[in-house]
Automatic annotation (TrEMBL):
Protein name: Very short patch repair endonuclease
UniProt xrefs under NCBIfam families: vsr
Transmembrane annotation, as ranges: none
CDD domains: Vsr
InterPro entries found in the cross-reference section: DNA_mismatch_endonuc_vsr, Restrct_endonuc-II-like
GO MF annotation: an example: endonuclease activity
Keywords tagged on the record: DNA damage, DNA repair, Endonuclease, Hydrolase, Nuclease
Annotated region (Disordered), positions in chain: 1-34
């Protein structure tokens, strides 16, 4: 009989060619990892993080499309490859993850406790780049809107999406 069972982390790691357990001693010395992940797993996990078509981007685009707005997505002609470009309204929307784009005051944003120098420098570069790109777009006559990941939590999502629509088309108020 062919039983089906839930895949374990060991099954997934074996499929990728890694190991699922903790690091083992190597060549007589105790080899320890600073990570809770097995060797190779961290790289795999980080490789799954995408720069476009994220779940929050898709959510925003579905909403805008359902309201009748037509747009370009991830248009490489503009600085920052905006997530949504609405030429008719000269509006550009960036859907930012709170961690990656340093959303100040947000609980989802904090510098990791390990490798602090690396993460601080990286996140500051991201933040500075965002500021430069937004300024460049605004100088070119575009209206730039940033939607943060935390603003799309289920409890506040609908209100934020409606406010976004109003910011784009203008509700006269």
């Amino acid at each position: 009989m062919n039983e089906t069972r839930k895949r374990t982390s060991a099954d997934r790691a074996a499929k990728r060619g890694g190991s699922a357990g903790k690091a083992t001693a190597g060549k007589g010395a105790a080899a320890k990892t600073a990570s809770k992940y097995a060797r190779g797993t961290r790289s795999y996990t980080m490789s799954r993080i995408r720069g476009r078509d994220t779940s929050i981007e898709c959510l925003v685009r579905r909403y805008l499309f359902s309201r009748g707005l037509r747009f370009r997505k991830n248009d490489r002609r503009y600085p920052g490859h905006p997530d949504v470009v609405l030429p008719k309204w000269r509006t550009i929307v960036f859907v930012n993850g709170c961690f990656w784009h340093m959303h100040e005051g947000c609980p989802k944003y904090s510098i990791p406790k390990s490798n602090v120098e690396f993460w601080t420098a990286k996140l500051l570069r991201n933040h500075d780049r965002d500021q430069r790109q937004h300024a460049e777009l605004e100088a070119s006559g575009w209206h730039v809107i940033v939607v943060w990941e935390c603003e799309l939590a289920k409890s506040v999502r609908q209100a934020r999406l409606e406010r976004l629509y109003d910011e784009i088309v203008g509700d006269g108020s």
